[in-house]
Write a structure and sequence with these properties.
This protein is an all-alpha fold. It is built from 6 helices and no strands. Helix 1 runs parallel beside helix 4 and helix 2 packs antiparallel against helix 4.
Length: 153
């Protein structure tokens, strides 16, 4: 089950990123990415999380791993969450949803600020591959342009 969910989530995210980076940003395409991409990934995450926390889904835990505790925010507690296929899949869907949401925000913000698609593409690719890296690069670029335009004092 977990391999199937993992693979479907990856394919959905990849298709949405392709639309976001390669196709014209018409309202229908952007709505598709936001609602069918981000929305479905968020819904999947919620279902998986509730299923794991409630014990409805078997997390296929590693032998010897303690029970998953979503309230333990220590390093070992977080590591325990990822010692199961269910925990890893749920966490991965979380990353996919948030990175895609950030990609949509970057694309809309960059379009509104007049950045060319050639400038946006590597930033969006960086966001797809390593979310915070792409977001950081975008924040630096938008800040630099804003300062150059005299919008920040």
């Amino acid at each position: 089950m977990w391999d199937t969910v993992f693979n479907i989530a990856n394919l959905l995210a990849l298709a949405m990123w392709a639309i976001l980076i390669l196709l014209p940003r018409k309202p229908f395409a952007m709505a598709l990415v936001l609602y069918c991409g981000v929305g479905l990934l968020c819904l999947t995450y919620v279902v998986l999380l509730v299923g794991l926390v409630s014990g409805v889904f078997d997390p296929v835990r590693e032998a010897g791993a303690g029970a998953a505790n979503f309230g333990d925010f220590s390093l070992s507690g977080i590591a325990d969450l990822f010692r199961s296929e269910g925990g890893v899949t749920t966490g991965w869907v979380h990353y996919l949803a948030f990175d895609l949401f950030i990609g949509v925000w970057i694309a809309r913000d960059a379009d509104a600020k007049g950045f060319s698609r050639w400038v946006q593409a590597p930033i969006l690719l960086a966001t797809f591959m390593a979310g915070p890296l792409g977001l950081f690069v975008w924040l630096l670029m938008r800040e630099r342009r804003a300062r150059a335009a005299g919008r920040w004092s």
